[in-house]
UniProtKB/TrEMBL annotation:
Pfam families: STAS. The lineage of its organism: Bacteria, Pseudomonadati, Deferribacterota, Deferribacteres, Deferribacterales. Residues 1-108 form the STAS domain. CDD domains: STAS_anti-anti-sigma_factors. This is Anti-sigma factor antagonist. InterPro entries: Anti-sigma_ant, STAS_dom, STAS_dom_sf. It comes from the Bacteria. Belongs to the anti-sigma-factor antagonist family. One of its GO terms (molecular function) is anti-sigma factor antagonist activity. It comes from Deferribacter desulfuricans (strain DSM 14783 / JCM 11476 / NBRC 101012 / SSM1).
Length: 114
């Protein structure tokens, strides 16, 4: 598996281990689609060194699924280069992006409930 998961209270945290591309992004999206009883999902980019357009597409599909199911979604710990990808494509306006995991959890807990 190209990612690991953690749970903080009822928030699912997905930590990709190196990159998000078509294959890894699809695995993440499949994992998200099977989640039950979570108050939110965070993808922690702390270890992500590479993100391509296929990976972005998978993240957008995950966002759509979560929005359709009223589950908040946040990204955190983006490197400067990956943050530029989101800014240059205006996806920073679509995703909730936070500096760190603590802020992302706080957002989910303060803004949303099950």
């Amino acid at each position: 598996m190209a990612f690991k998961t953690e749970k903080v209270e009822d928030v699912e945290i997905i930590i990709p281990l190196s990159e998000i591309d078509a294959i890894n992004g699809n695995e993440i999206r499949d994992h998200i689609s099977k989640l039950k009883n979570v108050s939110g999902v965070i993808i922690n980019f702390d270890r992500v060194i590479y993100l391509n357009s296929s990976g972005l597409r998978e993240l957008i599909q995950s966002l759509k699924y979560l929005k359709d199911n009223h589950i908040p979604f946040a990204l955190c710990n983006l490197s400067e280069n990956i943050h530029k990808i989101f800014s240059n494509t205006n996806l920073n306006k679509l995703f909730n992006i936070f500096k760190n995991e603590k802020d992302a959890i706080k957002f989910i807990k303060e803004e949303y409930t099950i």
